[in-house]
Design a protein that fits this description.
globular, 21% strand, Trichothecene_AcTrans, binds coenzyme A, N-acetyltransferase domain-containing protein, alpha+beta, 7 strands, Aminopeptidase
């Protein structure tokens, strides 16, 4: 089926994910994530231990969707399958960090949830996830914690912005507007909630989509673990919602206690 004959983005259904979607989400992840530099960097041993990746990602997606992890909203884009347009298929999904809700409710003492860290702990720690290079993972976490604090928390406060944690479009369904539809869902939520900004830490592919949607590029940070020869680059990007901007509350102290919590690239 050609690009033009496929249904338009107007026909996409954006809905919250349920546990019944986990297998489909992991399938999209498995097909799409290896296109990202950060995935290849962190999951250096995935060829040797593919089953560890699937076990870990299945649990991570499960936790993201679980009502117990109310810091996260997972939205799914469902559209007609290319093979048979009468059959709906999960073609893309987004994971949003909506911890601003809990922070608004519980105040600055609220400790953000760490679905990815918890999943790893439940599986027996990083040594049980043999697909991961632990040194690279640690370097990524550290860089991400610092960058997010500097660009997002210090600027918008802990509860002033909505963060995109994951966005994946199935490889066969790219460039059809699904990624944009999912990000637009978040932008609309942020506007409704009077948040100051939508933020993301992106790789090379995502950067093009976010720029297309009007996000501003703040900084690129090269990550290299100690003793490593390989690197990859994170891009800090933000969409400021000028009309909805609220100054961060002065007495809030969102210190870097969350370092290791918001693991955009901990995939
Ligand atoms: C990034 C990603 C989510 C984009 O999803 P998508 O559904 O293909 O995005 P859209 O169709 O909505 O793209 C909208 C616009 O973004 C830009 N864009 C998106 N992907 C692009 C690419 N690979 N090359 C150039 N421009 C691109 C284009 O301007 C595009 O509009 P156009 O197709 O009319 O030219 C998808 O490529 C993906 O899943 N990549 C791997 C995972 C990843 O990098 N996720 C982002 C992590 S933060």
């Amino acid at each position: 089926m050609s690009h033009t004959s496929y249904p338009s983005p107007a026909e996409v259904a954006i809905r919250p994910a349920t546990f019944a979607d986990v297998e489909d989400l992991v399938e999209v992840f498995k097909i799409t994530a290896p296109l990202e530099e950060s995935f290849r960097y962190r999951n250096q041993y995935v060829q040797q231990y593919p089953e560890d990746l699937i076990k870990y990602e299945t649990l991570v997606h499960h936790l993201f969707i679980s009502p117990k992890y109310s810091d996260f909203d997972v939205m799914v884009a469902e559209a007609p399958s290319i093979e048979d347009v009468t059959v709906p298929k999960v073609v893309a999904y987004a994971v949003w960090d909506v911890s601003y809700r809990n922070k608004r409710q519980w105040g600055s003492e609220y400790k953000s949830q760490n679905a990815k860290g918890d999943a790893m702990a439940q599986l027996g720690g990083v040594s049980a996830c043999r697909h991961v290079n632990p040194i690279r993972r640690a370097a990524m976490l550290e860089a991400d914690g610092e960058g997010s604090k500097r660009h997002f928390e210090d600027v918008y406060g802990g509860d002033g912005h909505l963060e995109l944690v994951r966005l994946k479009t199935h490889r066969d369904y790219m460039r059809r507007g699904f990624g944009s539809a999912l990000v637009t869902w978040g932008i609309n939520l942020a506007k409704e909630q009077h948040l100051a900004a939508v933020s993301v830490v992106s790789g090379q592919m995502g950067k093009l989509l976010y720029a297309h949607l009007g996000f501003k590029h703040l900084e690129q940070v090269m990550i290299r673990a100690p003793g490593d020869t390989e690197t990859f680059t994170d891009h800090y990007m933000v969409l400021e919602l000028q009309d909805h901007k609220q100054p961060p509350q002065k007495n809030q102290s969102w210190q870097n206690e969350r370092c290791g919590r918001r693991l955009v690239w901990d995939i």
